[in-house]
Structure formats: structure tokens, C-alpha cells
């Protein structure tokens, strides 16, 4: 009997020991096992990666004898579109026990993300329950702090899966205030998916807005993008609210924003009839102004040309060091950010690199981007950007279902690649966007004295040199076929600094704007013949399709 009791006690201790130390064993056997972020609270580390009783990754890991190799690495256990390796920071599946992963983790391999999306809610089932936590902000109880509701008037929710509705609202304007925090009040949790509040620029009047105040109207993408571009507040089930640093706030009132646009997204997959909603955001604001104003920095590119039929078409943009030196009066501090693409967007990242350093530091990353499930990335502490630092934006697109080229634009059929970064002090940056045009810093493309790679890029299209080139093209080159003598002319032109390397595409675009499309048709009429002459085509191709690049196409901009 004693032996039997001892055996039961021993087994019990083994089970307890496994519960206590099992997770740490799993963590050591997978890349970044001690750094996986809690999907519910991205400021915490997940304490159960690889638990086969809890998630599909744990089951797959167990079936693979708890060995990290290409078999389990290349699986997408949680079904969110990212392989286990990509989520754990080992996309190439090369990590070994005891070594350091090449990348930081970007997701949880056993939890479908973003967890608040209807698809991931179904995938995760009862394995994950994240509660929306009200904003925890000590400042909202200070003397003089006021609050106001920014809500949509009670509106019938359409019996359709996804609906975006907007309403233009007025902010207090009797004096200047600082918005210091925000949270949500949810009127109908059955349909409310997320909300955003876009602040209109100072000086914008009611007459500038496309819709009158208080009128609910359907909207897609960003509402009032020209006049109301800055995201002041946002809510989703994973974001309880925002509490701004004690030294900064969004300025509203006499010399700040006087109007804002509230956008709500309703998710009604069951197409229920008769649902109503009047949800909104609660702003906390104070007349006691803080030292700094919060602004929004936009990075990325507005020069997209994305071909159809691509599963992973990558676009890269950069806020160049030349631009941060030119636009930053003093350092700024980034407090949060979110990524913005449209329906073809599949993955996006922003990162920064300090002057004279080689390592990039990721700021915002959506390893599985979903336009309908925006993620506001809050930083544990503000990220400092100084003159000379650089900010990178990487966007990936899936156009397998499209049969036409996709261009930059604000409609659902167009695309964007923009990172929106909230920062302070707002006055330290002007203008508040830092974009690239191709591989070129856009901040230099308005100065007629700019010379890049020995090319007077801005003044060249209207120069006498350009006019002489156009005369040569008109004399020797046809519009469609490659005329005799044209190849020699084009080869001569291709040695001009303005037609070499990273400045070439921009030069051609500007020549078309100034002199018309006919010039470009003549310039490109011998592309195939020249490519064949230079041995750039590995196999015969037709005139219509030869740009002599091997798929998948990859264009850096």
C-alpha cells in the first residue's frame, strides 16, 4: 500500500512539475520562445507557447516530436496566412537550439491574428477570449479635465456583412484645449467592429467639408483625406483607448482642429435586420495646455504601380536622411503608429535606423495585414527620431485576383503604402510627410537646383539638353517599331546621367508630363532589341511583354 501511495504522489509531482516547467522547455525549443507577444495585450509576453492542449501550433509541435525544423516551420498552424516561421522570426527556417534568431517575432503561431477579425474569431473559437479594457489614464481625473462624446447619431445598420459610416462633428472652439486621452462607449457590441476619429487641419471650415455636420453618410477608405488627415483617436476590441504622454496632447479649439470625422465599421456577417447603433468615442480634454502638441508624420510612397497576378509584390520606400535633416528642426518622439494599405495589401512594416548605424528597429509590423482590422501599434516609450535618421516602409501586395495594373489612389480599386506615425512636438517637423518617389527623396524634388547622381533632376525636363534629345528621337525613332538608327540614338541617350540608375524612371515620367507620351513611345520603341543586344533576355519574348526581368517582379520605390 505504501508503495502504491508513493507512486501516486510521484506521478502527481511529475504532472505539477510539467505544468510549471513545461512552458520553459517549449520556449527553449522554438525561436524567440521567450518573446512571443500576448495577442490580447501587446505589452505582455505570452506564457504558454507550444502548449499542445491549448492551440494548433502546440499540437503540430507535439506531432513533430517537439523538434523545430522545416516541417513545422513552414506550416501555418493558426490559419492566419503567415507561416509559423514568419511569426516566430525564423522565416527561412534556419534556427537551431542555442542560436539567436535573425528576426524578432511578429505574431503568435497558435493564435489567428488579428484576433478581433470575424475570421480569426471563428478560427480561435474558445481558445482565446480577449476583453476590451477601458483606458487606464491617471490624468483624466485631474482638476479641469473635461470630456465630450463624439458619437454617430442612432442609425439603422444595413443587412450586409461590412459597412462603413461617417459623420462630421464639431469640436470646442471657444479657446485652445489639449485632448489628453480617449476611450469608447459601445452602444451595440453585436455589430460594432472598430472606430476612428480623424482630426481636420486647423483653418478648415464647414464649407470645406463634403458633408454637413451631424449627417451620417457612407464612406470608404479614409473620409475627408485632404482636409482631415490626422488620426486623433481609434478604438477596436484590442484597443481600449489612448492615454497620451503627460507632456503632449492634440490641440483643438481656436488655433487647433475645430472639426473631426468619426468613422465606424459595422460587421454584420449574419445580415441581421433592424440592428441600430449610436456608438462613439469619449474625448478627455483640458484647457491647461501641455508643453507640446501632437502631430502625425506620414511616411511611404505615393508612386505605386503594382502589376496584376502577383502573390507577393514588394514595395519599399524610405524617408531619406537628407529629408529628416531638411524637415526636422529638432528631434521628435513617436508615440504610436498604424499601417495603411487597401484590399490588395498583405503585409506591412515601418522601421527606423539611427544616423551612422546599420541596424533597423521595427516600429509597426502587420505580418498579416487586413484593411478591415486596423492595428494601432502603441510603443512602451516614445521613439526618438533625430535629423539624419531614416524611416523605412515596406509593403507587400497580393494581386492574384486582378487582371489590371493597380495604381496609387484613394478608391478601393487603388492602393496605398503609407505609415501614419503620431509624434510630438508637432512644430519640430515641416512638412509632416516624408515620402519617396521611386528610390529618390521626394523632399528634394521641388528644388530646381537639386542634382542627384550628376543629374539636374528637377530642371532637366525643360532644359535645352532635353529638347535636343527629343529632336533626335523625333528624327530617328518611330512610335511603335524600332526604326533603323534609333538604337544608336537611344544607346547614346542611355549614357546621359539623367537616364542611368535610380533617376531614370523619374526623368522619363517628368519628360512625359512636360513633352507628352509620344516622346516616351519613341524612347522605348527599341527596348526589346536593345535588351537582346545586351543579353538581358534569357528567352525570346514578344514586343508587348519584354522588360527583361525575371518573375516574380520586384520593384523598389
Strand runs, count:
25
Unreliable spans are 1-23, 539-557
What is the helix content?
10-25%
Calculate the mean pLDDT score and round it. Answer: 86
Number of domains: 4
Rg of Cα set? 27 Å
Would you spell out the secondary-structure blueprint of this structure?
Layout: H1 2-28, H2 56-63, H3 70-73, H4 84-87, H5 118-124, E1 146-151, E2 155-156, E3 162-170, E4 177-185, E5 192-199, E6 216-218, E7 230-235, E8 241-243, E9 248-252, E10 259-267, E11 276-277, E12 280-286, E13 292-293, E14 295-301, E15 305-306, E16 313-319, H6 321-327, E17 332-340, E18 345-353, E19 361-366, E20 377-385, E21 390-397, E22 406-407, E23 417-424, E24 433-437, E25 440-441, H7 464-476, H8 486-493, H9 504-515, H10 517-523, H11 527-533
Provide keyphrases for this structure.
11 helices; alpha+beta; Jelly Rolls; globular; 557 residues; disordered C terminus
Please, could you describe this protein's structure?
This protein has 557 residues and is an alpha+beta fold. It has four domains: 24-127, no CATH class; 138-293, Jelly Rolls (Sandwich); 297-444, Sandwich (Jelly Rolls), CATH 2.60.120.230; 447-557, no CATH class. The protein contains eleven helices and 25 strands. Strands 1, 4, 8, 9, 12 and 13 form a six-stranded mixed beta sheet that branches. Strands 20-17-23-14-24-25 form a six-stranded mixed beta sheet. Strands 6-3-10-5-7 form a five-stranded antiparallel beta sheet, with no helix packed on it. A hairpin with a 7-residue loop joins strand 18 and strand 19 (361-366). Helix 7 (464-476) packs antiparallel against helix 8 (486-493) and helix 9 packs across helix 10 (517-523). The protein is globular and about 75 Å long. It starts with a helix and ends in a 24-residue tail after the last helix. Residues 1-23 and 539-557 have low confidence and may be disordered.
Amino acid at each position: 500500500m505504501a508503495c502504491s501511495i508513493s507512486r501516486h504522489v510521484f506521478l502527481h509531482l511529475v504532472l505539477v512539475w510539467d505544468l510549471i516547467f513545461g512552458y520553459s522547455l517549449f520556449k527553449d525549443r522554438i525561436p524567440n520562445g521567450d518573446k512571443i507577444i500576448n495577442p490580447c495585450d501587446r505589452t505582455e509576453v505570452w506564457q504558454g507557447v507550444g502548449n499542445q492542449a491549448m492551440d494548433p501550433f502546440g499540437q503540430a509541435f507535439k506531432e513533430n516530436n517537439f523538434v523545430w525544423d522545416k516541417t513545422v516551420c513552414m506550416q501555418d498552424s493558426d490559419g492566419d496566412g503567415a507561416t509559423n516561421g514568419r511569426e516566430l522570426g525564423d522565416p527561412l527556417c534556419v534556427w537551431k537550439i542555442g542560436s539567436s534568431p535573425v528576426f524578432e517575432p511578429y505574431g503568435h503561431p497558435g493564435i489567428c491574428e488579428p484576433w478581433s477579425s470575424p475570421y480569426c474569431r471563428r478560427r480561435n473559437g474558445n481558445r482565446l477570449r480577449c476583453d476590451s479594457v477601458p483606458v487606464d489614464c491617471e490624468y483624466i481625473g485631474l482638476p479641469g479635465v473635461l470630456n465630450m462624446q463624439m458619437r454617430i447619431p442612432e442609425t439603422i445598420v444595413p443587412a450586409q456583412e461590412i459597412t462603413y459610416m461617417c459623420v462630421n462633428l464639431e469640436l470646442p472652439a471657444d479657446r485652445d484645449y489639449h485632448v489628453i486621452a480617449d476611450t469608447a462607449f459601445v452602444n451595440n457590441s453585436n455589430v460594432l467592429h472598430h472606430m476612428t476619429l480623424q482630426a481636420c487641419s486647423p483653418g478648415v471650415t464647414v464649407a470645406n467639408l463634403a458633408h454637413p455636420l451631424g449627417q451620417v453618410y457612407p464612406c470608404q477608405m479614409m473620409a475627408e483625406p485632404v482636409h482631415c488627415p490626422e488620426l486623433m483617436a481609434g478604438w477596436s476590441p484590442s484597443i481600449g483607448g489612448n492615454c497620451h504622454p503627460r507632456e503632449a496632447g492634440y490641440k483643438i479649439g481656436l488655433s487647433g482642429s475645430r472639426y473631426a470625422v468619426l468613422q465606424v465599421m459595422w460587421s454584420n456577417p449574419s445580415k441581421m435586420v433592424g440592428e441600430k447603433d449610436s456608438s462613439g468615442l469619449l474625448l478627455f480634454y483640458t484647457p491647461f495646455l501641455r508643453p507640446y502638441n501632437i502631430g502625425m508624420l506620414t511616411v511611404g510612397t505615393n508612386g505605386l504601380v503594382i502589376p496584376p497576378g502577383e502573390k507577393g509584390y514588394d514595395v519599399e520606400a524610405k524617408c531619406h536622411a537628407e529629408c529628416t535633416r531638411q524637415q526636422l528642426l529638432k528631434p521628435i518622439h513617436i508615440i504610436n503608429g498604424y499601417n495603411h494599405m487597401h484590399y490588395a495589401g498583405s503585409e506591412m512594416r515601418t522601421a527606423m535606423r539611427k544616423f551612422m548605424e546599420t541596424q533597423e528597429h521595427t516600429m509597426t509590423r502587420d505580418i498579416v495585414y487586413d484593411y478591415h482590422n486596423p492595428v494601432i501599434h502603441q510603443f512602451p516609450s516614445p521613439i526618438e527620431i533625430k535629423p539624419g535618421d531614416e524611416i523605412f516602409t515596406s509593403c507587400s501586395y497580393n494581386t492574384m485576383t486582378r487582371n489590371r495594373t493597380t495604381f496609387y489612389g484613394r478608391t478601393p480599386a487603388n492602393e496605398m503604402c503609407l505609415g501614419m506615425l503620431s509624434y510630438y512636438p508637432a512644430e519640430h517637423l515641416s512638412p509632416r510627410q516624408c515620402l519617396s518617389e521611386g528610390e529618390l527623396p521626394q523632399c528634394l524634388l521641388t528644388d530646381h537646383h537639386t542634382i542627384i547622381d550628376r543629374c539636374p533632376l528637377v530642371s532637366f525636363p525643360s532644359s535645352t539638353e532635353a529638347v535636343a534629345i527629343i529632336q533626335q528621337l523625333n528624327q530617328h525613332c518611330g512610335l511603335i517599331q524600332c526604326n533603323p538608327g534609333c538604337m544608336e540614338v537611344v544607346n547614346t541617350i542611355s549614357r546621359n546621367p539623367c537616364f542611368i540608375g535610380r533617376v531614370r524612371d523619374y526623368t522619363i515620367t517628368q519628360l512625359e508630363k512636360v513633352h507628352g507620351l509620344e516622346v516616351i513611345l519613341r524612347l522605348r520603341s527599341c527596348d526589346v532589341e536593345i535588351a537582346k543586344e545586351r543579353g538581358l533576355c534569357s528567352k525570346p519574348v514578344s514586343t508587348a511583354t519584354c522588360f527583361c526581368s525575371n518573375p516574380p517582379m520586384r520593384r523598389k520605390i
